[in-house]
Amino acid sequence: MNFFDWQFAREILPRLLDASLTTIGIALAGFAIAVVLGLFLAIARRSRQRWLSWPITGLIEFIRSTPLLIQVYFLFYVFPNYGLNLSAMQAGIIGIALHYACYTAEVYRAGLDAVPRSQWEAVTALNMKPWTAYRDVILPQALRPVLPALGNYLISILKDTPVLSAITVVEIMQRAKNIGSESFRYLEPITMVGVFFLILSLGLAWCVRRLENRMELAR
């Protein structure tokens, strides 16, 4: 029976911490792109122009209905056959960002739909330009209630980064597997990776709850 080797755990800790920075960087980069792109997708989906709203709706539903793993496989392994060459890191970040942009788009759409109809009528009556209306009137009201939900997607993105090990991105899970294959000890590296995700996820969840409480008090 294999018992946890604390000495071995201390030896591999620096290597795992180094890879954890890559994991955190991927999660933050993917989330930053997703929250911005998701907003534009939501606005485009709500457009009255069918030539814009229908293709965007189809794209969102297609991406939300297919696994992230398949999407990053296409980006890294299939698209180079058609001239789009991406590094593993680029493919991973783009894949996560696009995948979660479609989910955040639905969150934004719910927020936009929750804005009272009178507000939309007011900006129309004032003949405000669309960009000005969204920036000054609509978005401040739509974004406040959906911020906690967006925070939850950051946690989901973090937990999905191990998927990128399938396309050779050396994030913390891939580093743990490499250590295991070198030493034939998987208990310590995999356990430490699990603890890393647990601590970080709990910390982010605490931040999201704090944000929710502040939103409630601000109402």
Automatic annotation (TrEMBL):
Q: Which GO terms describe its molecular function?
A: transmembrane transporter activity
**Is Zinc tagged as a keyword?**
no
Chain segments annotated as transmembrane: 20-44, 190-208
Is Manganese found in the keyword set? no
| A GO cellular component entry from the record | ATP-binding cassette (ABC) transporter complex
The record's Gene Ontology biological-process terms are:
amino acid transport
Q: Which InterPro entries match?
A: AA_ABC_transptr_permease_3TM, ArtM/GltK/GlnP/TcyL/YhdX-like, Ectoine_EhuD, MetI-like, MetI-like_sf
All copies of the ABC transmembrane type-1 domain together span: 20-208
Membrane topology designation: Multi-pass membrane protein
Main localization category:
membrane
Report the locations given in the UniProt record.
Cell inner membrane; Cell membrane
> Which Pfam families does its entry note?
BPD_transp_1 (PF00528)
* Coiled coil region boundaries: none
The record's annotation in SUPFAM superfamilies points to: MetI-like (SSF161098)
Q: Which UniProt keywords apply?
A: Amino-acid transport, Cell membrane, Membrane, Transmembrane, Transmembrane helix, Transport
Q: Which family does it belong to?
A: Belongs to the binding-protein-dependent transport system permease family. HisMQ subfamily.
Return the protein name.
Ectoine/hydroxyectoine ABC transporter permease subunit EhuD
* Species the sequence originates in: Stutzerimonas frequens
Gene name, please?
ehuD
